[in-house]
């Protein structure tokens, strides 16, 4: 069963087909995603473990014939670009089977094909006008900004999770210290009370 946290965007709404999402990967679990890709298509797989454990995961990419195109063990993040040699269903799997108690939050961006030009610009037989060139540059800049925003959100989520874990550890440590101080205080009071308490003399009955 797949536990979707949130979907950033789907290929149906992009110029370039593909999938971009963030999902939970439970402990001792494996999640696979399938994408139909045509032959001689440039593809890019990018992923990053946002939270969980040592921030690592096993990754494997297979072609329609079952050949391993890419495989990494206990990686935190990476990017892989390849050109499809066959038409069919390609599969990318993320495995957390080596972890028995910590689940992971994984970000994946699987882009298929090159981004298409803006409508009306790709069919140009003449030189682009200044306005069209400016629109194209703005479009490229916006795509770059979106990529930066995505990576900054991932870093922010990772930093927030680490801060929450650190805060929880500090809280429990403070509670333990408080209990220890209270226990020592009661112990000292009890010992001092015994020092100043007059003991009754021992009388032996015959």
Automatic annotation (TrEMBL):
Sequence similarity: Belongs to the EMP24/GP25L family.
Protein origin, superkingdom: Eukaryota
Signal sequence residues: 1-18
Main location: membrane
Keyword presence, Membrane: yes
TM region positions: 170-192
Cellular compartments per GO CC: endomembrane system; membrane
Residue stretches making up the GOLD domain: 30-112
Membrane-related topology note: Single-pass membrane protein; Single-pass type I membrane protein
Pfam families: EMP24_GP25L
Keywords, sorted A to Z: Developmental protein, Membrane, Signal, Transmembrane, Transmembrane helix
PROSITE patterns attached to this UniProt entry: GOLD
The keyword Transcription regulation belongs to this UniProt entry's keyword annotation: no
Higher taxonomy: Eukaryota, Metazoa, Ecdysozoa, Arthropoda, Hexapoda
Subcellular location: Endomembrane system; Membrane
Name of this chain's protein: Transmembrane emp24 domain-containing protein 3-like
